[in-house]
Amino acid sequence: AQETAELLSYAPNVTPGLARITEGIMARGAGSYVEYTDGRKMLDFTCGIGVTSLGHCHPKVSAAAAEQCMQIVHAQCSIAFHAPYLGLVQRLLHMMPHPSLDSFFFWNSGSEAVEAALKLARIATGRQNIICMQGAYHGRTFGAMAVTRSKTIYSVGVAPLMPGVFTIPFPFWHQLGREPSTPTDELVKQCLYQLDLVLSQQTAPKDTAAIIVEPVLGEGGYVPTPPAFLEGLRAVCDKHGMLLIVDEVQSGFARTGRLFAIEESGVRPDIMVIAKGLANGFPLSGVVSRKDLTESLAPGSMGGTYAGNAVSCAAACAVADAMREEGILENVNARSTELFAALEAVKRAHSAAVVDVRGRGLMLAVEFAGEGVAARVAKKCVERGMIILTTSVYEVIRFIPALNISAEDLAKGAKIFQEAVDEVLR
Ligand code: PMP
């Protein structure tokens, strides 16, 4: 306790620019639980924002990383290949949502990989402009922030950002001022119409390199992208020689009940961005595309000191193996059905206050009516022993538990949520 107090006395020396939803010092994690130095044990429905998808300190992943630590930690990617780098390519090739995705490079964070994807799109097409979605989140670096449209807090006081970015609405009822019951095809039609307008009024196709989209709008509200919208984007890209960049940073690696969320639509990405669940907590991200696109990259035009770190890649290899060997997808789909049912029950019990239950797999969300409700519910969950996050500028709570969570822990989390909602709405 004394050591904790001593350490916490330095907290004022950490930038207040970081938000924090729990008090104290997190000391340990195992599976779906984390422990604080003061003995609090919390059920984790955040996975460190969708990262530790196989649970905290998955034994095989941690062992693979530890083993790699004793071999080589930093075999710099512009100096030499290391075995886990190529071993990861070998594994990922078989996991891709489309066989055309056969050219990889790795980075550290989702933001950096988005930056690289944008650069690649410009280089490969010789065009400058990018079209992004209202509500999109792609990261906090300058280029990634330029295509982020989920909250102003990230960019307040920071502009000018990268120019040449155009925004179209995403088929989410909020964005078109409609009701949750609005038929999806109506929303899709309106958004594709806006895309046509942008391409005829604001950025000509021959100046437009790419459209970037999340297959599940994440920080914008946890909204699965309708397959018809993705098909529409694909068709427009094909028609005009533009590239479709699919950001699977949050939705990838079985999170939505498929290896990649884009599979639901069958749409082929030209460039796909991956991170988060890829290495279960070790910093690693990647850009995947086609060899014919990356052919135009001169050696040395891409790179980064830590990009594709050996320990992170070794962890990611173990993640890929565990995904296959441990029936992860099956568990996601079974637990998803249970969680959805539990959240629907909460909605029925509070039909005026709960506006919507949505999502895919174990990337689910509940939206409330009334200002501040989501934050109050999240706070009550923390008090009751479960960490959970809000998302977007709307009143949304998101559920991103470990993909291998047990039925028992899932039910426990659902119950904590239900009790928190009952208390807040009482
Ligand atoms: N893209 C998406 C869809 C994300 O959800 C995030 C992170 N929440 C990012 C990109 C940025 O990733 P990172 O925080 O690792 O830079």
TrEMBL record:
Alphabetized Gene3D superfamilies for the sequence: Aspartate Aminotransferase, domain 1, Type I PLP-dependent aspartate aminotransferase-like (Major domain)
PROSITE patterns: AA_TRANSFER_CLASS_3
UniProt xrefs under Pfam families: Aminotran_3
InterPro entries hit by this protein: Aminotrans_3, Aminotrans_3_PPA_site, Class-III_PLP-dep_AT, PyrdxlP-dep_Trfase, PyrdxlP-dep_Trfase_major, PyrdxlP-dep_Trfase_small
Keyword Transferase in annotation: yes
Cofactors: pyridoxal 5'-phosphate
Alphabetical keyword list: Aminotransferase, Pyridoxal phosphate, Transferase
SUPFAM superfamilies, A to Z: PLP-dependent transferases (SSF53383)
GO molecular function terms attached to this record: identical protein binding; pyridoxal phosphate binding; transaminase activity
Family: Belongs to the class-III pyridoxal-phosphate-dependent aminotransferase family.
PANTHER family: ACETYLORNITHINE AMINOTRANSFERASE, MITOCHONDRIAL, AMINOTRANSFERASE CLASS III
Protein name: Pyridoxal phosphate-dependent transferase
